[in-house]
Amino acid sequence: MKRFLLLFTFCLLVLAQTQAQTISKVNFDAIKKAIAAPKSKLYFPNLLKRYHANDPSLTDEEYKHLYYGWTLQPGYSPYKGNDKADALNEMLLFERFPEIVTTGKKILATDPFNMDVIYLIHMAYGELNNQVESRKWLVKFDGLMQAIKASGNGRAPETAVVLAAPRDEYMFLTVVGLRQDGPVQTVNNKYHVVKLKSPNKLNLTEVYFNIEKPLTKKK
User: Partners of 22 in the beta sheet?
Assistant: First the structure.
């Protein structure tokens, strides 16, 4: 009987691990539980309010729950196009920095984790010689990027870099000093594999990005 109970317990543990949704180093089950509890310090509505206010005290753990917690929200739309976002590049070309700030903030009101827009606002404030605001937006950008970098090393499917939106691939590669070489390949309807220009400082020939969350949302 004792042997049976031990075997039964072991099977339950295996089943729990199989059902648990952990991608690379991101435990989505734990994140979902933490951000849904009103009394949790990681309660998503409270974190999002601080995030929108550019709270400088947000921690790496809180940025992780914000970035990946976004994939669990009703408004999560990683493939949503935005004409205003496209217009930002034209504004940058013609150095219309005040417009970049005002338009960028409007975009982020509904698409709060658009890292391209966040970085452009940081740059625009810098060009306007408002270093205080520029620094705030850079801190926000760095917080999100640190969450992404901590998710995996990208060297194999099992340790893929986990993204909430495929658009973040280019920004990630730029930040870590890598350059894409050729078209992106989709593997197993789960990964993007990006070939890299060599040589590079990380001695990598390719990087794996896990895009399960955005692909699931796209279906």
Answer: 27
Residues in contact with 202: Cβ distance below 8 Å, sequence separation at least 6, in sequence order: 176, 177, 178
Are the C-beta atoms of residues 21 and 28 closer than 8 Å to each other? Answer: yes
Section 187-204 average pLDDT: 95
Dihedrals φ, ψ of 53, to 5°? Answer: -85, 5
d(CA 58, CA 215): 29
Q: What percentage of the chain has pLDDT greater than the value 90?
A: 83
* Structure tokens given for 176: 């870590």
Q: DSSP 3-state assignment of 120? A: helix
Do 152 and 159 contact (CB within 8 A), yes or no? yes
**Any idea what the Cα angle at residue 21 is, between residues 19 and 24, rounded to 5°?**
130
Q: Which helix (H) or strand (E) segment is 119 a member of?
A: helix 115-127
Please state, in angstroms and rounded to a whole number, the distance separating the CA atoms of residues 210 and 214.
9
Q: Is the pLDDT of residue 84 over 90?
A: no
